[in-house]
Amino acid sequence: MAREAMQKLTQWEDVRYFLAVVRQGSFSGAARALATDQSTVSRRIALLEHALGQPLFERGPRTVRRTPQAEALLDAAQAVERAVLAMEDAASRAEAEPRGRVRIALTEGLAQHVVVPRILPGLFAAHPELAIDLRTGDEVLDLARHEADVSVRFFRPARGELVGQRVARLPLAVLVAKRARKRWAGRSIGELPWTSYVKDDLETPESRMLARLGVGRTRLACSSVETQLAAVRAGLGVAVAPRALTLALPDLAALDLPEAPDLGTLELFVVTRAALRKVPRVAVVYDALVEALRALDPSRAEV
Predict the structure, then answer these.
(1) Domain ranges, residue 217
(2) Are 148 and 161 within 8 A, CB to CB?
(3) N or C: which end of the chain has fewer CB within 10 A?
(4) Distance CA 144, CA 46 (A)
């Protein structure tokens, strides 16, 4: 049944939409993963179901469930995906010069304060035929599934077809607006106006740090790190963040708290697929990221 059904999948896009819904568990999640809208995903799946003559998903109010027919197609669809992605990698390796588009997955803060001002001007000047897509956000895009070409991550990549390297260790500190530093100097941890970054009620590295400091309640909670930093820069409070931000944002300073425990460090990695590491357009982006991000590590001589 699966082989006969797959013969009717005449476009790679059919497989891509089908697998996105399977992996995300909803049409809305698939739309976000594919950078499209939910109505497009719903329409494409409906057309696919019509072409196959069988339902693939049972629709619910917020999620969808795979039907037995979808389960029967899954292995074949994944095989198609692997073949197409292998062809894309083979085509990329045939490049001779750094030209074409490179997709970088990273946080909004790294994009705004490091990559855009410090890396992209030099890259575009040296390689005028290069194009960049910045995929910003806190969600981890899957390099193996070609959701991005290069990723800047705060965790070590899994082994396999991914290659990468740690480029910096970033000590954490309590950051405050320079103009507000005198106002809060000498205050105890409990007296400081803390801000926090919250993500769908999930525990974040920052929430763990605040717990270590004994901070039970914050004055301001933000669902965006950049909004939190804007609040700190406006003098509304303090935040646990990488000390290196004071290099990118001169209006921020570290607030010394003698009674505070060591807050630890964040490790920063640059990662790509092994098949792309030597592709010229990817290699120049990868190397530029490594060089610039290394400068954020205070243990390195050039800082």
Answers:
(1) 100-141+166-268+296-303
(2) no
(3) N
(4) 27
Query: What total number of domains does the chain contain?
Result: 2
Going by C-alpha positions, the residue among 190, 164, 179, 177 that lies closest to residue 257 is: 190
* Under 8 Å between Cβ of 204 and 197: yes
* CATH number, domain with residue 204: 3.40.190.290
**Which of the listed residues 61, 93, 125 is the one where a domain comes to its end?**
93
Residues of the chain below pLDDT 50: 1-7, 301-303
Residue 201: what pLDDT? 64
Residue 94: other Cβ atoms inside 10 A: 7
Task: Provide the pLDDT for residue 93.
Answer: 59
